[in-house]
Amino acid sequence: MANFNRRDALKMSAGFAAATAGGFSCIELAKAGPIQVPTIDKLSVRVIVDSASDIFFKPAEVAGVKTEPGRSSNSLLPLHSEWGLSLFLEPQRGDLKRTLLLDFGWTPEAINGNMELLKVDPSKVDALVMSHGHWDHLGGIMGFLDRHRKSMPSDLTIYAGGEDNFCQRYQRSQGGDLSDYGMLDRRDLAKRDVKVMLCETPTVIGDVAFTTGKIKRNSIEKVLPNSMVEFKQKDGAGCNWSHYLPAEMEGKIVPDEHIHEHATCFNLKDKGLIVISSCGHVGIVNSVRQAMEVSGVDKVHAIMGGFHLGPAPADYLTQVVAEIGKLNPDVLIPMHCSGLNFTQEAHRQMRGKVLTTTTGTRITFGA
Questions:
Q1: For residue 183, what pLDDT is reported?
Q2: Could you give phi then psi for residue 241, rounded to 5 degrees?
């Protein structure tokens, strides 16, 4: 879109990675100096897709952060919950308003249907953000674009954490067999006229948000077992592993370390950082510390999203919640894969700081 400021996006390397037919290119940001993190006045988050629904959900407030239920506009059709996440983000700074769509759930039926039932306007979307390459976060994207692309900006861009986001994923069964867990093919994005911005380094989006870039792993956290990943590219599909992995990794299928998973962040005026970790495989503490480092902001207002601690052993979970507590956020908002075990432990250690949500919830930050 003509008025979408890409000042920071222009700080890129001279090299462009050709991706598909039709002259479509992916842009890799240069590993340059610090970003200029914008400050916003308000943020509204609508939970379009999450893993649970609760028709009895009640409004709540913690540290000025408010949650309110989102109801289906059709009393005969419920909101659809599925394993996955999609968030409709509306930050505002003065008169400047943007709309970002972070992740897309598992199926197009869920994201498209819930947007309609919640009366959310997809034509308002200025940019897309993909947190990582798991199908429960990207499975709905093509069906969403097929329905709504014509109503969105002509220069629509998706901000992906990096090349790792385009790798082929697999799930391993208890018997050891591998099953297809999906792959985002950039050629499909090209066909729908969506540009790709690789955010392997911190990146400002629309003068309202910033991404963490590749997250350093320096806490007690570890990547818990999840998917397998294949480092391979053929005919434009898959990931170009060669610029971030040694040659011997070509074609290997290995446990997924989510090398380029990133978090989406905001700096709320007079409050501090809002860090959104869609799945947090690389560690929620690591993610928040990275946001603090790249922004230069020490105060953490809110930590929210999926933390991938559902499968965590009890002793490890207790340690991670204690480390989150040391970050001293005003509010903690677990979603998706965080796990009921995490929510219960967080309530125990961080009493009065935890807000829960459900599919359809609106969360508001700032006045």
A1: 96
A2: -70, -20
Strands (E), 193-296: 195-198, 203-205, 209-211, 228-230, 233-234, 237-238, 253-255, 264-268, 272-277
Q: Does domain 8-365 have CATH number 3.30.420.10?
A: no
Give the type of residue at 50: D
With bands split at pLDDT 50, 70 and 90, how would you rate the model's confidence at 104?
very high
Q: Say what angle helices 284-295 and 314-327 make with each other, to 10 degrees.
A: 20
Q: What is the pLDDT of residues 204-263, one digit of tens each?
A: 999 999 999 999 999 999 999 889 999 999 888 999 888 899 999 999 999 999 999 999
Q: Do the Cβ atoms of 123 and 151 come closer than 8 Å? A: yes
Cβ–Cβ < 8 Å for 350, 332:
yes
- CB count in 10 Å sphere of residue 95: 5
Global pTM value: 0.92
Domains of the chain by residue range? 8-365
